[in-house]
Design a protein that fits this description.
A: two-stranded antiparallel sheet, globular, B: alpha/beta, 16 helices, 37% helix, 17% strand
């Protein structure tokens, strides 16, 4: 048995203007999960401590919260893995969400991101046309099962720095869910889905890898890469600004061994897109006045052929 | 007042399947759920869902129905069983066409695995996350049909006017207001009640809500004494390790390293039905051949690759709780409370005795499971009877004119909650809950006898009376008051526990999951009847045995595996 002190964020949106903290001590085995520790605190000490929970086996996704500054599922976090020498554990609601009551947050913006995706199978044929299952190879299904492990706990969304500065960003979880349909051989709306997810700022992802920490090993970051790759490989989507940007970055690096920023701007916006180019002109003028304007043409680095070899070996698309 | 044609209480598999069926039929339907639908405990179902697709071996719905009837120890109503098993293949195809991610055979058809008590490998699955993928598929269909979900609304009471259902009262957890919801048809799909026991595979939210509500509205609760103890739950926290482990070939070992199941089930071994396996395990433990109060589930010979491909979730759950990796070590397990075969009494279409009121899924008892449920039949029951109850409800609502719930029920609910909220002293619900859990775990477990059951009945009645008199709620907030919600849940759980203990004491025979050491034989002459429990305020439920078991094809036989 250990004396564990839960240092909990307390807030009630109906009456409080600012949050406060309470420290609640409970005597429990130190291998107890943080969720069960909260449950003991609520049952035995203070009934007003509020948090969401259900399955306590990492499958319902209810209990994601911030534990000592790290967001994750409370039911999958033993106390002895997070408590300090005094036995204290600091517990806060998930970041990137508006708190409602204590550790309970408003989840609606998160669910809205899914709704925008039209998250349901849209096959080419009608449901009623079939008397048996559609045939799908084990490998094609296996790809989807790995993503299907997502329990929508929003841990990745809470961890995402892009969401924190631009709440319109789709966020990792819903992009991973989009991948589940984009890669489903039974679905007929791949291009429409890619267009939608591009509109939802797919290319804002900064590849910081924060969402690589996933309690269910779905690894949303890798799924974001997959969706970007599918966009670049799509004949329809390739004309859009996001994939064009990715391609021109690769093209200039392959050509010169460096990032040719002037060419990247032109390539992303479009050389003949006068309106688009004029829109960035003030930025160009400011850069010019501060002496930060990159040169219009770059001389390739020595041994640029080795860079080309890397690109060719990896078969990275550049056009 | 909120108003819909059909209101479904609960957003798990049965509830969502019902809502989607009603939406496809053009009804104005809404879901009222205490959680977001994807949080439902249906998602924790691991192993699979039964249907006689015959993708691996020859199979027929009739063979499935026979296995189910035998598994029920002949207490299941065979007309309901046949309906479920013949609907099953069509329902699986329905799910597949809506995108459900089933594991596949090399030729692209849905994969199937062997499960306990089944004569053929007929359990369709998705690795060991079958419940989760079906849950997501149904949630996707809610999005497709734009079904309104009253999320984090806790349903507290059923409204009945002139003998017909008119809607419900629900507590909006976001603002603390009780609201009247008008519905021509109400479908309860509130899941299980595992939290009557201290150790259970069920989550914190499995609390007999719909069952308690129906009971109070005068609907009988059926066959509650039949509680399934799952053979493989973790000692540390009661978390479930799927029957799929044994379906894929795992062994059960005692302290001598012996595969003891063949002593109890010479033909089926580890794949006997769950009641048989759990009793065998408990017997081994009681007779001193346990390992620290457990037996061992051994997956090692399956090999790393198969474990990672087909059972990744249970490997991780065991690793998290015990520190043991199933690839290298046997996992200590023991039987744990898992499922109630009984529930709100319904007919073959999910209809209760009150017109306009339905129930489906674990909270209901059309009696397909009788005295013992086969693995893989619970997911099937949710889907089949969710759809059937919605179909019946959609026909029913066409015949009903404008009906309205009266403010009387709303006022009664306000009074019930205010009584707890206005007090600052007394006893909190967790105290009553713990007392009930102890009574149930100690006296209404795998093996039962008159002495223990009498004690349980008496103690539960005492807990009921004290709860009614002494309870207060500590949290007074209007925002997400889970202290109040937990109190309402405990109120319902005590009702459910009383039905279990009273039914078990009165049934003087051993059948399926009810094992009476003082009446060790099945008694077909006297007990081929269902237990109906009717609520009596502040007293033990009144028991009635007027509903006889329906037999269509299979007379009771000696049951061996």
């Amino acid at each position: 048995m250990a004396n564990i002190k839960l240092d909990i964020f307390r807030f009630d949106e109906a009456v409080d203007t600012v949050p406060h903290r309470d420290v609640v001590a409970v005597d429990i085995p130190e291998t107890t999960t943080v969720l069960d520790a909260l449950e003991v605190a609520k049952s035995e000490v203070d009934g007003s401590i509020s948090f969401r929970r259900s399955c306590r086996s990492a499958i319902c996704g209810s209990c994601s919260m911030n534990i000592n500054g790290v967001t994750g599922l409370a039911c999958k976090t033993p106390c002895n893995s997070v408590m300090d020498e005094s036995g204290t554990i600091k517990i806060d609601p998930m970041p990137n969400f508006q708190p409602m009551r204590d550790l309970v947050v408003h989840m609606d913006p998160f669910w809205d991101k899914y709704t925008r995706l039209k998250p349901y199978l849209q096959p080419a044929d009608k449901d009623s046309d079939h008397q048996t299952e559609r045939r799908v190879s084990p490998d094609d299904m296996k790809k989807l099962v790995d993503v299907a492990n997502c329990v929508m706990c929003a841990t990745c969304y809470a961890l995402c720095p892009v969401v924190s500065v631009d709440p319109s960003f789709a966020g990792p979880a819903s992009i991973a869910y989009a991948y589940r349909f984009i890669e489903d051989v039974r679905d007929s709306k791949k291009e429409e889905r890619l267009a939608q997810i591009n509109e939802d700022y797919l290319w804002l992802c900064a590849h910081c890898y924060a969402c690589s920490y996933c309690p269910k090993h779905v690894d949303p970051h890798d799924r974001i890469i997959d969706v970007k790759r599918a966009t670049v490989n799509s004949r329809v989507m390739i004309k859009e600004r996001g994939p064009q940007h990715a391609l021109v970055v690769n093209r200039t690096i392959k050509k010169t061994g460096m990032l040719a920023e002037t060419e990247v701007i032109q390539g992303t916006i479009g050389r003949f897109n006068i309106k688009g180019l004029l829109a960035v002109a003030p930025l160009g003028l400011r850069m010019l006045s501060k002496g930060k304007m990159p040169p219009p043409f770059l001389k390739p680095i020595p041994k640029v052929d080795e860079v080309k070899t890397i690109y060719d070996t990896l078969e990275v698309p550049v056009t | 007042m909120i108003k819909h044609d059909v209101v479904v209480i609960g957003g798990g598999l049965a509830g969502m399947r019902a809502a989607v069926e009603a939406a496809e039929r053009g009804a104005d339907v809404a879901i009222v759920s205490k959680m977001h639908p994807v949080r439902s405990h249906s998602g924790a179902a691991q192993g699979g869902i039964n249907a006689a697709l015959g993708n691996r071996d020859e199979d027929t719905p009739e063979a499935h129905a026979f296995d189910t009837a035998k598994g029920s120890d002949y207490l299941g109503d065979q007309d309901c069983i046949e309906a479920m098993c013949s609907d099953a293949p069509r329902e699986i195809i329905w799910l597949e066409h809506r995108g459900c991610i089933f594991s596949r055979l090399p030729d692209g058809r849905i994969a199937q695995r062997p499960f306990g008590g089944a004569g053929s490998p007929r359990t369709c699955y998705s690795a060991d996350v079958t419940g989760l993928v079906i849950l997501h598929t149904l949630w996707e269909q809610l999005e497709r049909f734009n079904v309104k979900v009253y999320e984090e609304y806790f349903c507290t009471a059923l409204c009945v006017e002139d003998g017909i259902g008119t809607g419900v009262v629900a507590y909006n957890m976001r603002n603390g207001e009780l609201e009247l919801i008008n519905a021509k048809a109400t479908i309860f799909a509130t899941g299980g009640c595992g939290r009557m026991y201290a150790k259970t595979t069920n989550g914190y939210a499995s609390t007999a809500d719909g069952l308690g509500i129906a009971f109070r509205a005068g609907i009988p609760i059926m066959d509650m004494e039949f509680v399934q103890f799952h053979p493989t739950s973790l000692k540390e926290n009661g978390v479930l390790l799927s029957e799929a482990a044994r379906g894929e070939g795992a062994y059960l070992l005692n302290s001598n390293g012996e595969r003891f199941m063949f002593k109890y089930a010479p033909n089926k071994g580890e794949l006997a039905s769950r009641d048989v396996v759990s009793r065998a395990e408990w017997t081994e433990i009681l007779e001193g051949r346990g390992v620290d109060g457990c037996v061992l589930l051994d997956l090692r010979h399956l090999g790393r690759e198969k474990i990672l491909e087909r059972l990744p979730q249970i490997r991780e759950l065991a690793l998290d709780a015990t520190g043991k990796d199933a690839i290298d070590d046997p996992i200590p397990i023991l039987p744990g409370m898992h499922y109630t075969m009984g529930g709100i009494e319904t007919d073959i279409d999910g209809a209760t005795r009150i017109p306009g009121v339905y129930a489906a899924g674990e909270c209901a008892a059309p009696s397909v499971h009788g005295a013992n449920r086969l693995g893989g039949n619970s997911l099937l029951e949710t889907i089949v009877f969710g759809a059937r109850s919605a179909r019946h409800a959609c026909d029913y609502i066409k015949k009903v004119g404008n009906i309205k719930p009266s403010e009387r029920t709303l006022q009664a609910e306000k009074d019930r909650l205010n009584k707890w909220l206005s007090k600052d002293t007394g006893t909190r619900a967790p105290v009553a809950r713990a007392a009930m859990q102890n009574v149930m775990s100690e006296n209404v477990f795998i093996f039962r006898n008159e002495g223990q059951l009498t004690k349980a009945v008496d103690q539960l009645l005492d807990i009921r009376r004290r709860f009614d008199e002494e309870t207060y709620v500590m949290d007074k907030s209007k925002t997400f008051n889970t202290d109040l919600v937990n109190t309402m849940e405990t109120d319902f759980l005590i009702d459910a526990a009383m039905c279990v203990a009273n039914g078990a004491l009165a049934r003087k025979e051993s059948r399926g999951a009810q094992a009476r050491t003082d009446y060790p034989e099945r008694d077909d002459d006297n007990w081929m009847v269902h237990t109906l429990a009717w609520r009596q305020e502040g007293q033990n439920p009144k028991l009635d045995y007027s509903r006889k078991v329906t037999i269509t094809k299979w007379q009771p036989q000696v049951r061996s595996y």
